[in-house]
Model the fold of this input.
Amino acid sequence: MSVPDVNQTFLRVRYSETDQMGTFYNSRALEWFECGRTEFLRQRGVSYVQMEADGVMLPLVEAHVKYRGRARYDDLLSVQTTAAMSGKARVRFEVVITKAQGGDPVADGWTEHAIVTPQGKPIRPPEWFVKVFSVQGVDL
Done:
């Protein structure tokens, strides 16, 4: 079974995610990045729960967000996520968030995660982790 290189997840802006100016609060973008990352892995057959049970943790080590436009309460958003290895013991997820209807840009950026044991020791990605990406056509 072939899985696309890009995962697309849809989210609706909740009232609690907006600020006094009527647009999404800036920290929400990183939460939406997390949703995209989680669904990217799930689409490839790996849940975060199972990955962590198998001894692989992905703590955030760096993030970048570029805010491109507004998203208001009840807007439906498209979160598109891709991934690639970044060095020997890191993985980088690229994310683009747009309004689902019309495609207006909302935010884009990336998060970079270390690959570590539950004790926090950096490790090379296990073979099963690499296969999750390479088998699906994502070149890590």
Notes: The CA atoms of residues 68 and 106 lie 5 Å apart.
